[in-house]
């Protein structure tokens, strides 16, 4: 059990404190690389952007000894309907997303990150069922793309454990025209992987009680027959209000703790490989530094840490400590 390296402030001190907290309070941690991909550099053999090199080198320099590392890399943009942007805001031209130049570029991207970070687990793409939901015409090409890349990564790194993550909040009771067909397709695809990694934010689904949470877990266990890990998850500890997105969701520390307890019980009873709680601390200070155009999106997870923005422990931290220190 562990956390992602998402910091709570835009400072080196915050980053260092986050890694220290993870070292003290987990036996696994996650590097989450869900931003830009240097497509042009990979496709045309150009120098990699300094911003990308510095990001990966910073993560490598802070690698936590004696902890397992899972690395999640996003192929897709934040809307999960298209390839991720390059550092200049463009995406490469393609006929289908399994075009050879896309495959070669993304393979090189994953290979570089893996060589630099040497993870125990690699989540080769993030929240992939969202692509099937948002751009179903690209799904078959996506599956071909990842099958080819998976084979190449396995040949390059034979001991590396591979997966692609699925959002449980849009796998369970999905808002799609044909939910039975969608669920069957995602279950079949997930069960074709070595293990199944889950992204789950119950508040996106309006889940608020232990019974609500357990119904989602029961659904997951009914549909998935491979080992399970939670690559990212958390729950609100305060009410979330984002007027521009028409979002108003009640939250509380009690409800957050109820979710964490349910997660930990299911992890133990079903022998999950690992669980990653998204952010260890509320990131109000980091959020203040976000560009205006992403502030509303970035606010969605702001109160999901198990420590508040002032460094005060929440109820969920006691639950975490109790289980981790058993």
From TrEMBL:
Q: InterPro entries, from UniProt?
A: GH
Q: Which SUPFAM superfamilies match?
A: (Trans)glycosidases
The upper taxonomy is: Bacteria, Pseudomonadati, Bacteroidota, Flavobacteriia, Flavobacteriales
Record's protein name: Arabinogalactan endo-beta-1,4-galactanase
């Amino acid at each position: 059990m562990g956390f992602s390296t998402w910091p709570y402030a835009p400072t080196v001190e915050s980053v260092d404190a986050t890694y220290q907290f993870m070292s003290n309070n987990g036996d696994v941690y996650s590097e989450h690389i869900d931003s830009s991909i240097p497509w042009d550099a990979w496709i045309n053999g150009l120098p990699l952007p300094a911003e990308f090199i510095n990001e990966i080198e910073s993560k490598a320099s802070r690698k936590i000894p004696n902890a397992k590392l899972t690395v999640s890399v996003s192929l897709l943009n934040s809307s999960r309907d298209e390839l991720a942007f390059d550092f200049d805001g463009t995406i490469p031209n393609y006929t289908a997303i399994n075009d050879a130049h896309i495959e070669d570029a993304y393979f090189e991207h994953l290979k570089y990150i893996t060589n630099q970070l040497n993870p125990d687990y690699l989540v080769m793409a993030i929240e992939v069922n969202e692509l099937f939901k948002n751009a179903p015409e690209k799904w078959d090409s996506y599956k071909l793309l990842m099958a080819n890349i998976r084979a190449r990564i396995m040949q390059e790194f034979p001991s590396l454990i591979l997966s692609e993550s699925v959002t449980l909040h849009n796998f369970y009771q999905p808002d799609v025209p044909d939910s039975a067909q969608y669920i069957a397709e995602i279950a079949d695809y997930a069960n074709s992987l070595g293990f199944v990694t889950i992204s789950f934010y119950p508040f996106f689904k309006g889940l608020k009680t232990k019974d609500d949470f357990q119904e989602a877990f029961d659904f997951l266990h009914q549909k998935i027959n491979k080992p399970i890990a939670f690559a990212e998850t958390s729950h609100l500890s305060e009410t979330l209000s984002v007027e521009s997105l028409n979002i108003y969701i009640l939250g509380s520390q009690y409800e957050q703790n109820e979710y964490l307890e349910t997660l930990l019980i299911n992890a133990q009873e079903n022998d999950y490989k690992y669980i990653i709680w998204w952010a260890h601390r509320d990131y109000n200070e980091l959020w203040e530094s976000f560009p205006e155009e992403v502030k509303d999106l970035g606010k969605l997870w702001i109160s999901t840490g198990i420590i508040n923005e002032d460094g005060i422990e929440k109820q969920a931290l006691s639950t975490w400590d109790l289980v981790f220190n058993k």
